[in-house]
Write a structure and sequence with these properties.
With 125 residues, this protein is mostly helical. 88% of the residues lie in helices and 0% in strands. The chain contains 5 helices and no strands.
Length: 125
């Protein structure tokens, strides 16, 4: 529902700003909007939002302070880099283990291949 209201408000704003009908049409739209704005149901909702905002405004500085403090802590510490390094190390270890096994296997096959090829290469020289 909120998305629909925002969409309609965006369409209305776009129409008003993009309208080429001139000042007279703008004044008509403005007077129509003001007549809706000054209706009792709309003003009741405006009062509810204002009272909610006034009740919560005292919490804003504390929330901003805690948010800035969290960001500063993250920036100051290397804690985000450490978990990434810890995660990278096990991957490197497992990759290193498999590479070592593969290297050992290739050494065996490489040691047998040159022995067979060395007689052929020696004969060619």
């Amino acid at each position: 529902m909120r998305g629909k209201i925002l969409f309609v408000a965006g369409l209305a704003t776009g129409y008003v700003l993009g309208s080429r009908a001139g000042r007279q049409r703008y004044e008509q739209i403005k007077s129509g909007w003001l007549s809706v704005w000054h209706t009792a149901p709309v003003q009741n909702q405006v009062e509810k939002v204002q009272s909610f905002a006034k009740a919560r405004v005292s919490e804003v500085p504390g929330m901003l302070y805690s948010g800035v403090r969290k960001v500063a802590t993250v920036i100051a510490s290397d804690s985000p880099a450490e978990p990434a390094a810890k995660e990278a190390k096990p991957a490197a270890k497992s990759a290193g283990t498999s590479t070592t096994k593969a290297a050992g296997a290739s050494k065996k096959s490489a040691s047998t291949k040159p022995a067979a090829g060395s007689t052929g290469a020696g004969a060619k020289k």
